[in-house]
């Protein structure tokens, strides 16, 4: 028996080695640039497979990577063991009457979600019970990793980080022990997992709180190139005095002339304002009047909608792609920063990139009922810069543009948000900047307790304290 056959005998799901049929498909996710190249992959069917895979990795001193959808690839594994969770799609919704007392006052039920579940699976199931998860812009993103990384969602100014609504975590730690972690059973590990993400184990399932939201006033306002500067400045000043019920963002986007994009946008440079208002539609409409007053929209689909249509707000294309991304948390957004972003990637700029600014604040800035390690809670805005990569794109120009983004924003930035460090290029400095200094020190100390050999290092790594 080869070593990997030994592993295959210990798990229910498939095991792939390089060259096997299915290996390439299993290791490749949404991010197609520089995927994992593990020496073995376990396609886990259940928590038992995850436990067996971690045990095998520990016995053979193989570092462990985890992947569900591949939206957040932090570092391409070279060798090691990859646990692929995409087959673990168990989901159970429990309305409030059965969910018990624990949880924040805003919650009206819970969802138990396994490691391979995407938001697109949770949203309709929760809606059938009059509930919604604190999901984000894209239904294709994996729910578990999103929550473990913080989770800035469509309603986050109203309800805060998704991580703040976790009730329990099932995880396999580096000693290959399955543990059910609650704030009472192990407050330190509970704290570290929510924010520390893959550093403390492979999470096999989570129990999260759901909120009683069925409808939103939401959608997108798309403005053509000539109105971009005006709408950026209007959005900036407009966000200064909004109720927490309003969560919005703006993206500057060169839209490729491809059928996957709506016809009126193809081949144009546009500003896309995304609106999610949890409240009365008439009040939402009144609130966004200043944005509509900027001028005609190429598309305006802001409307009263069921939460099941919330994926249309950002309308991110579901097609896998290669990309390089950077993010910067800012305390506030001044006119000079907006002008700098227009110079960097506006319609007149020499190079193309997507620039997104999300308004944070509101409930995101509040301390959670149960503490967790999610950092940079005080930030007012998040700026993301994303460039497509590919054979037809000059990689040097992309790196130069991201260098200029750093020149513009590093000095204004208070840190990073871990969830938005994706693109297989996160540096250790960026990981450190995703936490408050004391939290980062504590994470390192807890890493030394729970994973002293850094078995879980093919990730946004937090090295154990020495
Ligand atoms: C198009 C797009 C839209 C996004 N929108 C939002 C948004 O609105 N709000 C937001 O907060 N974030 C958003 N993100 C970021 C996203 O939440 C993170 O990248 C998240 O990590 C993706 O999880 P995944 O399972 O889809 O991806 P994966 O690449 O499969 O996972 C990312 C990493 O998480 C870790 N991980 C995965 N599964 C587990 C597990 N079971 N246990 C422990 N660790 C695990 C691994 O280190 C893995 O490399 C977006 C990303 C993209 C590309």
Automatic annotation (TrEMBL):
Keyword Cytoplasm: no
UniProt cofactor(s): FAD
InterPro entries membership: BBE (IPR012951), FAD-bd_PCMH (IPR016166), FAD-bd_PCMH-like_sf (IPR036318), FAD-bd_PCMH_sub1 (IPR016167), FAD-bd_PCMH_sub2 (IPR016169), FAD-linked_Oxidoreductase (IPR050416), Oxid_FAD_bind_N (IPR006094)
Ranges where the FAD-binding PCMH-type domain occurs: 33-213
Keywords: FAD, Flavoprotein, Oxidoreductase
UniProt cross-references to Pfam families, sorted A to Z: BBE, FAD_binding_4
Superkingdom of origin: Bacteria
GO MF term set: FAD binding; oxidoreductase activity
Similarity annotation: Belongs to the oxygen-dependent FAD-linked oxidoreductase family.
Name of this protein: FAD-binding oxidoreductase
Species of provenance: Actinomadura rubrisoli
């Amino acid at each position: 028996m080869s070593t990997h056959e030994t592993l295959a005998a210990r798990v229910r799901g498939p095991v792939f080695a390089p060259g096997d049929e299915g290996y390439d498909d299993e290791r490749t996710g949404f991010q197609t640039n520089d995927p994992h190249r593990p020496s073995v992959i376990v396609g886990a069917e259940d928590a038992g497979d995850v436990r067996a895979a971690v045990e095998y990795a520990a016995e053979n001193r193989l570092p462990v990577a985890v992947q569900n959808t591949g939206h957040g690839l932090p570092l391409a594994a070279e060798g090691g063991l990859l646990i692929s969770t995409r087959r673990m799609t168990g989901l159970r919704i429990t309305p409030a009457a059965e969910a018990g007392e624990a949880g924040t006052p805003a919650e009206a039920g819970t969802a138990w979600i396994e490691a391979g579940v995407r938001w697109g699976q949770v949203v309709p199931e929760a809606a059938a019970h009059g509930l919604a998860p604190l999901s984000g812009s894209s239904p294709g993103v994996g729910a578990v990793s999103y929550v473990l990384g913080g989770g800035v969602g469509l309603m986050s100014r109203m309800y805060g980080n998704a991580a703040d609504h976790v009730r329990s975590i099932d995880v396999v730690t580096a000693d290959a022990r399955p543990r059910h972690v609650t704030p009472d059973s192990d407050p330190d590990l509970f704290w570290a997992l929510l924010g520390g993400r893959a550093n403390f184990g492979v999470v096999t399932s989570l129990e999260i709180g759901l909120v009683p939201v069925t409808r939103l006033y939401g959608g997108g306002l798309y403005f053509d190139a000539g109105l971009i500067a005006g709408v950026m400045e209007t959005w900036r000043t407009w966000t200064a005095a909004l109720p927490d019920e309003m969560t919005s963002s703006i993206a500057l986007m060169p839209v490729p002339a491809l059928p996957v994009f709506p016809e009126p946008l193809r081949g144009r440079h546009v500003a896309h304002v995304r609106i999610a208002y949890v409240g009365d539609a008439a009040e939402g409409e009144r609130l966004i009047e200043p944005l509509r007053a900027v001028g005609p929209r190429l598309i305006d689909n802001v409307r009263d909608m069921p939460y099941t249509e919330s994926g249309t707000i950002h309308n991110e294309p579901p097609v896998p792609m290669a990309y390089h991304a950077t993010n910067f948390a800012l305390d506030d957004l001044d006119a000079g920063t907006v002008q700098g972003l227009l110079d960097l990637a506006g319609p007149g700029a020499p190079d193309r990139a997507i620039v997104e600014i999300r308004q944070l604040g509101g409930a995101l800035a509040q301390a959670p009922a149960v503490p967790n390690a999610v950092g940079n809670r005080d930030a007012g805005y998040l700026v993301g810069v994303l460039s497509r990569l590919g054979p037809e794109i000059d990689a040097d120009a992309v790196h130069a543009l991201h260098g200029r983004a750093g020149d513009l924003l590093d000095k204004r930035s208070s840190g990073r948000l871990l969830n938005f460090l994706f693109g297989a290029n996160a540096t250790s400095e960026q990981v450190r900047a995703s936490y408050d200094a004391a939290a980062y020190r504590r994470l390192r100390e807890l890493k030394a307790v729970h994973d002293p050999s850094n078995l879980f290092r093919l990730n946004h790594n937090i090295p154990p304290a020495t």
